[in-house]
Amino acid sequence: MPTHDKQDAPSITTLASREVYRNRWMRVREDEVLRSNGQKGIYGVVDKSDSAIILPVDGGNIWLVEQFRYTIQERALELPQGSWEEDEATSAEDLVRGELQEETGLHAATLIHLGTVWIAYGFLRQQQHVFLATDLNPVGNDPDAEEHDLTLHSIPIADFEQRMLDGRIRDNCTIAAWGLYRMWKDRQA
Q1: Rounded CA gap, 178 and 159, in Å?
Q2: What is the pTM of this model?
Q3: At what angle do helices 172-188 and 157-165 cross, to 10 degrees?
Q4: Among candidates 85, 91, 82, 80, which has minimal Cα distance to 153?
Q5: DSSP letter string over 51-93?
Q6: Is residue 156 included in any domain, yes or no?
Q7: Residue 70: inside a domain
Q8: Co-location of 168 and 151 in the same domain
Q9: Are residues 113 and 167 in the same domain?
Q10: Residues 73-120: tens digit of each pLDDT
């Protein structure tokens, strides 16, 4: 059985790369690649700026947003989340504070960084910073045009977990963020 060392050379080499699409939120490229087995191929990659997902926990409740997600043609209940546009450059904490206020109208006196995950690295190059937000206060929201139909929900944590278990909440970012939170919380005792 082969062993893997972090210092090993990549098993796929990029021979050529071309951008096929770009907008303010993402860039799509197609790379011609050579695999270590000698086979050439094509790899499609979506590049996006880093993003953040927020767990706004208020006592025994958690704040969620619900909105129509065009790609799946359904309304989805999920944790507040968002990313920088191509030309924005701020800290992850600034992004979290901005997204939290924009989507929920809340300000968090306390933010705790729980970790950073890759969202879907099979085709997407985008990291997501996971933050716990507590000591919440209403300050008024300012949703952008993409969030015209966003609704806000505060639900008991037990109900939130049940919705993930029974498939009513299927957003992988929300589920992964909750997993990081639960591991962090278990270690606080």
Answers
A1: 13
A2: 0.89
A3: 130
A4: 80
A5: EEEEEEEETTEEEEEEEEETTTTEEEEE--EEE--TT----HH
A6: yes
A7: yes
A8: yes
A9: yes
A10: 999 999 999 987 766 657 899 999 999 999 999 999 999 999 999 999
